[in-house]
């Protein structure tokens, strides 16, 4: 039972440190590098423990977390952003359609401006995410 408690403690520390670094107000590349370094530090510390089962458990969990973070950076965020972008574009078009059918030319023009600006923002956001993905693959 003591081994399990120690393993859970280290797992909690690893997850907490990972989340803290991930949500810190730094650039993505710097954050990912710092997170990688912290995980390597934790792996080194876990290797020094006298209880090999705990050390192995911590290493496995860190590997899982690292894989999930890499998957999130490379695939999931971009996929979700693209899907949400399409939903938002559709809603903007619905707004334009509503303005055309129920409103005045001024309302129509304003709705078209909102739609066009939203599409520009979505394209820029996706472009940035794609660039982050390319940078991550290079490193």
Report what the structure shows.
- The radius of gyration is 23 Å and the shape is elongated.
- The protein has helices at 2-22, 28-47, 52-102, 105-138.
- The longest helix is centred in the middle third of the chain and has 51 residues, at 52-102.
- The mean pLDDT is 74.
- It is mainly alpha-helical and 139 residues long.
- It has one domain.
- Helix 1 (2-22) packs antiparallel against helix 2, helix 1 (2-22) packs parallel to helix 3 and helix 2 runs antiparallel to helix 3.
Q: Can you tell me the number of structural domains? A: 1
Order of helices and strands: HHHH
Compute the number of strand runs. 0
Strand content: under 5%
Low-confidence stretches are: none
- Report the average pLDDT across residues: 74
Oligomer class: single chain
How would you sum up the global shape? elongated
Structural class: mainly alpha
Give the N-terminus to C-terminus distance in angstroms. 40 Å
Let me know the largest β-sheet.
none
User: Radius of gyration over alpha carbons?
Assistant: 23 Å
* Discrete helix count: 4
Q: Portion of residues in helices?
A: over 70%
Give a nutshell description of this structure.
The chain is mainly alpha-helical and 139 residues long.
List the helices and strands and how they pair.
Elements: H1 2-22, H2 28-47, H3 52-102, H4 105-138
Helix pairs in contact: 1-2, 1-3, 2-3, 3-4
What would the keywords be for this entry?
mainly alpha, about 90% helix, single chain, 4 helices, about 0% strand, about 140 residues
């Amino acid at each position: 039972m003591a081994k399990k408690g120690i393993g859970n403690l280290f797992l909690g520390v690893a997850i907490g440190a990972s989340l803290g670094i991930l949500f810190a107000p730094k650039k993505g590349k710097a954050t990912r590098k710092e997170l990688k370094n912290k995980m390597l530090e934790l792996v080194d510390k876990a290797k020094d423990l006298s209880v090999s089962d705990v050390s192995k458990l911590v290493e496995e969990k860190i590997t899982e977390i690292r894989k999930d973070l890499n998957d999130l950076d490379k695939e999931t965020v971009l996929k979700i952003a693209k899907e949400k972008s399409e939903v938002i574009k559709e809603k903007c078009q619905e707004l334009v359609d509503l303005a055309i059918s129920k409103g005045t030319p001024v309302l129509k023009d304003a709705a078209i401006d909102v739609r066009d600006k939203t599409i520009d923002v979505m394209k820029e956001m996706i472009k940035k995410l794609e660039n982050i993905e390319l940078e991550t693959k290079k490193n």
